[in-house]
Amino acid sequence: MRSQQGELDAVLMYQRLAKIVKTEEERAVFVQLAKEEGRHASVFHRYTKEALKPGRAKSYLIAVLYYVLGRNRLYKVIAKGEYDAAVAYEHLISEFPEVQSVKDDEKRHGDIVSALIQK
Prior knowledge:
Structural class: mainly alpha
CATH class: Mainly Alpha
Distance between the termini: 36 Å
Helix content: over 70%
Oligomer: single chain
Number of strands: 0
Shape: globular
Largest sheet: none
Strand content: under 5%
CATH architecture: Up-down Bundle
CATH topology: Ferritin
Radius of gyration: 14 Å
């Protein structure tokens, strides 16, 4: 259930970032990542059968951190969170095979956000 909640919260986080970033490229990236995190939440929902609601606190915090930490430092934190999620999901794959696609996406998300730092 914690994984499902994290994915739901990430949807709002990426939607919030899409509203505040300065470039259209970043906006498009974050809109796409929000959609993918929504799919991840639905994968976990199929296993938990729990109807959870996304928490808004993370999305508000991320907006503040965007301005306080700066774009590049925040993106490093976000990328690390994506990589950490990929590692955390590893142990679920044997019991829930569909989580493999979620794990792979989280790694890719980390790579995508990391690539934004270079620009």
